[in-house]
Design a protein that fits this description.
With 248 residues, the chain is mainly alpha-helical. The protein folds into 2 domains: 170 residues, Arp2/3 complex 21 kDa subunit ARPC3; 72 residues. The chain has 10 helices and no strands. Helix 9 runs antiparallel to helix 10. The longest helix has 40 residues. It is globular, with a radius of gyration of 20 Å.
Length: 248
């Protein structure tokens, strides 16, 4: 049984590596690869930090060999992949902490490490220690939001726990609350951003409207999340007041 679960982990890891290589070009520019961060977080939650580190390393090496990607494929992935899994485990299964680990590991640590690697090994000039920080953080926020929305949905219907148990990974009880629901709504803004940007690029759509539409969708979903949070909080306050009044 233990051997079967180990084999299943290897199969899932291989599938995530293959998927990561295939979808990595979506929205990719040098210094920003949102879909790689999506894979990092999903692998961290499914399999844990060490498997996620291995997954990110393999994807980075394959991308460098087959696509000619600079070492950013590694420096912009491995730190976030590992910290995502660590933060997820330390927080006892909080999905937002898995995203936070990716943002800190890649957006800050990976971005800073990329400077000496790209300057002294790759020979790139005109860089600074914080050169890659903005683009790395932007990429992790987009990919992290998509991963959060995806994993939140799996957690709400019980599939995430089933997957973790099937893989003999650590599983946790997931409770959907107002704040987590608000985060999910906001995360769908990143999903909409990716979809609209992909359609725009695939169909070669131009114009002012298409240029701003991805960003408008992000702002719209964030605004919807804030409205949802405020309305629900007000509802909770009114419900408590009604209970107190009834008790009196």
């Amino acid at each position: 049984m233990k051997m079967k679960k180990g084999l299943l982990k290897m199969v899932v890891l291989s599938m995530l590596v293959a998927l990561g290589v295939v979808i990595s070009p979506i929205l990719r520019v040098e210094g920003m690869c949102p879909m790689a961060h999506f894979i990092n977080i999903v692998c961290s939650v499914f399999l844990g930090p060490w498997y996620s580190l291995l997954c990110a390393t393999l994807i980075g090496i394959i991308r460098m060999i087959t696509m000619g990607i600079p070492p950013l494929a590694l420096t912009g992935a491995v730190f976030g992949a590992f910290l995502s899994g660590v933060f997820y485990r330390i927080s006892k299964g909080k999905l937002i902490c898995a995203v936070l680990g990716e943002v800190i590991g890649t957006g800050i640590i990976g971005a800073i490490v990329s400077y000496p690697v790209m300057t002294f090994i790759w020979g790139r000039e005109g860089l600074s220690w914080l050169f890659y920080v903005p683009s790395f953080i932007c990429g992790t926020l987009i990919g992290g939001s998509i991963a959060y929305a995806f994993l939140r949905k799996l957690a709400d219907n019980g599939m995430l726990t089933n997957i973790q148990n099937m893989l003999a990974s650590k599983s946790y009880s997931y409770k959907s609350g107002i704040i987590s629901n608000a985060f999910t709504i906001a995360a769908f803004g990143a999903v909409a951003f990716v979809v609209i940007a992909f359609v725009e690029k695939a169909l070669d759509l131009t114009g002012v409207v298409w240029g701003y539409l991805p960003y408008v969708s992000v702002v719209g979903f964030m605004l919807a999340a804030v409205i949802y949070l405020v309305v629900k909080k007000i509802g909770q306050v009114k419900e408590k007041d009604a209970q107190v009044t009834g008790a009196v």
